[in-house]
Amino acid sequence: MNSLELKIPPPAQFVITAAAMFGVSKIVPALKFTLTGSTGLAVGLGVIGLSSGIMGVTQFRKAQTTPSPKEIDKATSLVTSGIYQYTRNPMYLGLTLILLGWALYLSHFLAFILIPIFMVYMTRFQIQPEERMMTQKFSDKYRAYVSRVRRWL
Asked: Is the separation of the CB atoms in 99 and 112 below 8 Å?
């Protein structure tokens, strides 16, 4: 899809961010912290994140439309039910929750700084271009949806 500004697919961007989080945790070990129960919380956030992404894809499949961010031009319907009643981007939210869990698992302060950077980057180069395309494709119906449901949560 030529009109999207993000050239690196979201899953790859997720992997790059997770690797950078791991890298900073090793390069600057002095910024590690200890939090009782952080591993359990990390796993919980990862499960919630994974579930969010799966629910998003499932709703797209139910509507018989593409979940691929590279094929938005092939979207056949606007999905507003299920998890899409609470977030317009459950797959990106899921990736973010998994990164939050990863940062907790790493127990490193700098790892947390990369999460808002990931979110800002995804919003600017992936989500906003997707939103422009959805507005062109579904016009007033999409605008009404945007007015009811938040971008992230």
From this structure: no
Beta carbons of 126 and 72 less than 8 angstroms apart: no
Domain ranges of the chain: 16-148
**pLDDT tens by residue, 42-91:** 999 999 999 999 999 999 999 999 888 778 878 899 999 999 999 999 99
- What pLDDT sits at residue 1? 43
The token pair that represents 78 in the structure block: 């606007």
Contact 91, 67 (CB under 8 A): yes
d(CA 115, CA 148): 25
Distance CA 116, CA 140 (A): 30
Buried b or exposed e, range 122-144, using 16+ CB within 10 angstroms: beebbbebbbebbeeeeeeebee
69 within 8 A of 9, measured Cβ to Cβ: yes
Which two structure tokens, joined as six digits, stand for 76? 């056949």
3-state secondary structure 88-102: CCHHHHHHHHHHHHH
d(C-alpha 92, C-alpha 89), whole Å: 5
Q: What are phi and psi of 3, to 5 degrees?
A: -80, -15
